[in-house]
Amino acid sequence: MTRFVERHPAWALIVIVAIALALWLTLAVWPPGLEEAIGRKRVFLNAVFNGITLGGLYFLVASGFTLIFGLMRNVNLAHGSLYLFGGYVGYAISASTGSWLLSFIVAFILTALVGVLLQLIVFRRMEGQDLRQTMVTIGLSIVFADLMLWACGGDFYQIQTPNWLIGPIELPLVTAVKSSGEPVYLRYPLVRLVIFAASVVIGLAMWLALNRTRIGMIIRAGVDDRDILAATGVRIQLVFVLVFALGAGLAGIAGVVGGTFQSLSPGEDIRFLLASLVVVIVGGMGSIPGAALGALIIGLAEQLGSVYIPTYAIVVTFLIMVLVLAVRPQGLLARR
Amino acid sequence: MSLAHDAHVTVRPAAAAQRPTLRGWPEINNPAAWIVAAILLIMPLIANGFFLIEIFATTLILGIMALSLMFLAGYGGMVSLMQLTIAGFSAYMVAVFGVSGNANISLGWPWWLAVPMALALATLFGTLGGALAVRTEGIYTIMITLAIGAAFYYFTNQNWAIFNGHTGINTVATPHFWGVNWRADIPFYYIVLAVAALCYFAVEYISRAPFGLALQGVRDNPRRMAALGFNVNAHRVAAYAFASFVAALAGVLQVWNYRQISPGSVSVGACIDILIIAVVGGITRPIGPFIGALIFVLLRTFALDFLVKLGLDGNRFRLLIGLGFLAIVFWSSDGVIGLWQSWRQRQRSGAARSSERHGRGSGQGSGHG
Questions:
Q1: Which of A174, A303, B144, B240 sits most deeply, having the most CB atoms within 10 A of its CB?
Q2: So where does this one cross the membrane (chain A) (predicted)?
Q3: Chain A interface disruption, residue of B319, B321, B323, most A CBs within 10 A
Q4: Same domain, yes or no, for B243 and B288?
Q5: Residue of A nearest to B325 (CA)
Q6: pLDDT grade, residue A26 (50/70/90)?
Q7: CA A241 to CA A116: how far, in whole Å?
């Protein structure tokens, strides 16, 4: 931190001012002039919270994508299909058993199994030919999309939120003050907050597992140089299978999450594939913290954009990507 | 890709030594090429309106788009998924600047003004996208161009001022001049054929011109080319500019063909279709994309009837396409052309072996082009 401040004093100042401004915008009661200029604070806070929770969902999808890419140099363009598959599985389980938590477990296991099969049957046979692997994943995503359309039809599905998570809760954030002097607090859906907390926990667990455990050490070594790692006697194929299973399973979990606070339909696979592409391009390929930062930026940009400049929301996301590519082509937090 | 590279290395000195005037057009000595050209020219006598437009003109238009991808991927080593987006942009620009049913959007320019404008803007758009994409390499290029394509698709869906949202722009006017309705089946077929031939020979010419050779050098070893004094990124961006122009031409033809343009025509799935066409056909030679497009269009048109006849669900057309694509990618690195070539080579080596058994070996083996 201090090194960053010493090396880039101007950037550090900008970051500090931005953080202070963001804190003031969230915590303070807005003066009337500001409300007139950009609308009510409740709208703004809702957009920010939606953005952050959407960022949590994007992080779940993109972290698996970036993990697989980081270790195996394999751009898995079928990742969106895994997301949608997990969502459908979660819907089927929660509709038949009524248990929301069970749907997460089953979705994780089944998509992880699909991931294992993909790695064993497909990717292992064409190691190192990244262009061909990418083509194969495109073909697979077409096949999967059509199979899922066949099995589930073109309807919208939404996974039932469990009773104990339904309804909004009041957050200690003042949105406005009534004329009687009574503060009005922000009300926000509990389920989104729980899901966001869960994605933070998953992110931290992944970070800990990568940085504090033996298998994490092996994976990090594999990201740096997998040939040398294989030469030291590590059973690299096993590591590949494990990482692919984990990445795919995360996509499956994300599918259940997305099915709960958005909906599942054909086409969502491409939407989330695109989201994870942009997230990892912005954050940096193969970097878990990068995926977190990118997901946060893209989620916020999407939601704030759709509130304040509705026709150009998608362009904002795109402009962020262009800006990052122009300034730091390897992504914000990539080491390369 | 190394296959094509070897082919050029072997063809070039021979062409320079033996027939300098022809500058190495392989089609001139190839009877099959003449037959195909003749069939394409007399096609209106053979095929009726449906086949002429829905099959052959559509094949040629998709083929031109895939050709622009083939040029980038085969000679430049850059797989760009935004070629359809560039074509769609150009189609939108024709609709916006020209005459259409949406009078509040279209500016009503005559076609000879709207088309060059659309071509110029689409080329600019593609070049800018390319300038972004060349900042990265290999699979990153796929992702960035895919992201550009998807962003454009969502943008056209959301923007009502220029792109008219998800309804798109309808009843786009087509050119009428010299007393001919150029959108009537037969004139339109010839326009498409002429543009396709132009693009095909332009790509083939460029692949042998110094620029194309330098581009192939950049594909094979960018660091070495940089050390030799070539500006690697400038070559790549120039390749994007040329490919964008080719794609933009196809876009103009497409909007004239369907007389409308909507976000559905520039969707992510359609972008990927272009990649499928190019890969299935083969991305080492310019003829590949057209073969791929023919297969794709035939499948798209007849798969439904075919599947129903087999007693299967006709809606599984995309499954068929996907599985076919997977099979091609799995078993051949160079699409249908690659399969054909390896089959020919096996035939030839088989013949050579049998003739050797009879005393003399005559098979040369290196018969590309």
A1: B240
A2: 12-31, 43-69, 76-94, 100-123, 135-157, 190-210, 238-261, 273-300, 307-327
A3: B319
A4: yes
A5: A139
A6: confident
A7: 6
Query: Two tokens at B111?
Result: 């076609």
Shared-domain flag, residues B260 and B344: no
* Reported confidence tier of residue B345, pLDDT bands at 50, 70, 90: confident
What residues make up the domain containing B74? 2-319
- For the segment B139-175, what is each residue's pLDDT rounded down to a tens digit? 778 878 888 888 888 888 877 777 877 777 877 777 7
Task: Measure CB to CB from residue A277 to each of B143, B315, B323 and give the nearest one.
Answer: B143
- A90-108 pLDDT, tens digit per residue, is 999 988 888 888 888 999 9
ipTM of the complex: 0.72
Interval B76-105 mean pLDDT: 85
Chain A residues near residue B155 by CB distance under 8 angstroms: 312, 314-315, 318
- Only one residue has tokens 């990539």, namely A334
B158 → closest Cβ in A134, A311, A321: A311
Calpha distance A210→B107 (Å, rounded): 58
pLDDT tens-digit profile of B261-285?
888 888 888 888 888 888 888 888 8
Q: Which of residues 147-206 of A touch B (CB under 8 A)?
A: 147, 150
The residue extents of the domains of chain A are: 50-161+190-327
Q: Selecting from 2.40.10, 1.10.3470, 3.30.300, 3.40.1350, what CATH number does the domain A50-161+190-327 have?
A: 1.10.3470
